[in-house]
Amino acid sequence: MLAVFDLDGTLLDGDSTALWLWGRVRRSVPRLLAALLVAPVAIPMVIAPPTRRAGASILLWIATAGLSEPKLRESCAEFAAGFQAKALPLRWRGPGMATLDEHLAHGDEVVVVTAAPTVLAQALIAPLDRPIVVLGTSLKRRAGGWVADVHCRNQRKCQALAEAGHGKRWAYAYTDSLDDLPLLRAADAPMIVGCGKAAHRRLDRARLPNGRAMAW
Q: What is the C-alpha R_g of the chain?
């Protein structure tokens, strides 16, 4: 059986992409000034689903301008090393990781599908040394920096799973976000996770007849 997990807010207790980008921006005065200049426009764009890809790409470009692909991967690896060393305000969620390990112990296939860049998500997950497939947002080079190519969110997560050979339905789906409703609706056992009250409120809004809320 296939168990599908979101990453940020589900297996992780924060936003890995935002932390990675902020870490790059704050170490460079020109990047910081550029980010502050565009923030009033880019941040509302990131919040609104229709413009999320464009807004994220603006911030991503500022943080990565001048990076070659090897340097991009090196930056993600450095971030992952800092995460492993617990030098970042980001942690694995204990109940989430325990649930993931239960699926692996039962012989289930586990896929993490995330809006985070694939290169970043892979750098974070690889040290776990578990047989986990990672699907995320692809990046492309644009004017010397990197921007989102195919943004892996909402219905696109289902498309990414289908393109990777996992079909159009799965046994389990775990996420903290209602942006993942297509992912949840395609699961036999959709799970909305988070602190107890928030998860139950999201479950009520989702109107999933077979859905469950889980306190993580």
A: 17
